[in-house]
Write a structure and sequence with these properties.
318 residues; alpha+beta; six-stranded antiparallel beta sheet; four-stranded antiparallel beta sheet; peptidoglycan synthesis
């Protein structure tokens, strides 16, 4: 792989996850500089395209979360500019970013995922909220988990334990997106499995177990130090750990992802994993799960990011 003389890290954007993205961008920039790479960090504003055209980077590391960072849009622009970047291509991002679609794809290859209903806001209102919600409870049972069909960081997500809680959960969800995904809530151990491919096929890193103090891994629990306890590797049986690793690699492959991804999984009381969702631009902050998995594997985050950038540059040149 060739030298990286000029690397661009994209961070910020205009999604609800802007602040997290900026933190991820700073972290990636820091570890790359520690690995001897010249890095510039830029936001996705009107100056980006002229900047790239005037001084094309050797490769781009995308740390944009939500919206354009994960739905394939910014990657489409990078391809228009003929700039290599780390991560999945636009088409794969679009599929993975839409949670109901991603669930359908992984289910088609035998991956277990909670039963669910996808409900656009218009349908929710047009058909009568009370009747629709009553049927959802009858069909899926309780408890339920409600979240926007697109987006991340648990924004607009909530656990519903009684039928009376469901209407307000839907309203909270629709504040962050026009379509709600309502899943059967699986009680169990929440884990995250990062997958990296350094040229020899996708490999799962050690699973990270998530134990939030407040019981739910919400926005505050994700990004406020001390609000969540993490175990890397997760305190799972060898069989459950292997099943989670296999599930994450299968999801990564089935969805056509590339370089790096992170799959969120719940392991029930019998040790069976359930696929929840996949992230094509995993967080890279001090409290994010991918860096913890890298450390648990005995690897260096700066080295990993450098190799991924070198791989992207080599892929482009070939």
């Amino acid at each position: 792989m060739g030298d990286l003389g000029h690397v661009l890290v994209l961070a910020g954007g205009l999604s609800y996850e802007r602040e997290v993205s900026l933190r991820s961008g700073r972290r990636v920039s820091e570890v790359l500089r520690g690995a001897g790479i010249s890095v510039e960090t830029r936001d996705t504003d009107a100056s980006l395209v002229p900047y790239v055209l005037a001084d094309p980077p050797d490769a781009v590391f995308v740390t944009l979360h939500g919206g354009a960072g994960e739905d394939g849009a910014i990657r489409s622009v990078l391809e228009l500019l003929s700039v290599p970047y780390v991560g999945a291509g636009p088409d794969a991002c679009r599929v993975a970013f839409d949670k109901p679609t991603a669930k359908a794809v992984v289910r088609s290859v035998g991956v277990r995922t909670p039963d669910s209903v996808t409900l656009p806001k218009e349908t929710f209102h047009d058909l009568g909220a009370s009747a629709v919600l009553a049927r959802i409870v009858e069909r899926l049972g309780l408890p339920l988990f409600v979240k926007p069909s697109r987006g991340g960081s648990a924004l607009g997500a909530s656990v519903v334990r009684t039928a009376e809680e469901l209407p307000s959960a839907m309203v909270g969800c629709f504040a962050y997106g026009d379509t709600a995904l309502i899943e059967r809530y699986i009680e169990g151990v929440e884990v995250s499995v990062s997958v990296v491919d350094l040229g020899e096929g996708p490999v799962a890193l050690p699973p990270v177990e998530i134990v939030p103090d407040a019981g739910m891994y919400d926005y505050a629990a994700r990004y406020t130090a001390g609000h969540t306890e993490f175990f890397a590797p997760a305190r799972l049986s060898p069989e459950a750990s292997a099943a989670c690793a296999e599930m994450a690699v299968t999801a990564h492959t089935a969805l056509g992802l590339r370089d790096v991804s992170r799959t969120d999984i719940i392991v029930d009381g019998s040790g069976f994993p359930y696929f929840l969702e996949v992230n094509v631009a995993p967080g890279m902050t001090e409290t994010s799960l991918l860096p913890m998995a890298v450390e648990a594997a005995g690897d260096d985050l700066g080295t990993l990011c450098r190799v991924l950038l070198e791989q992207a540059a080599a892929r482009h040149s070939s």
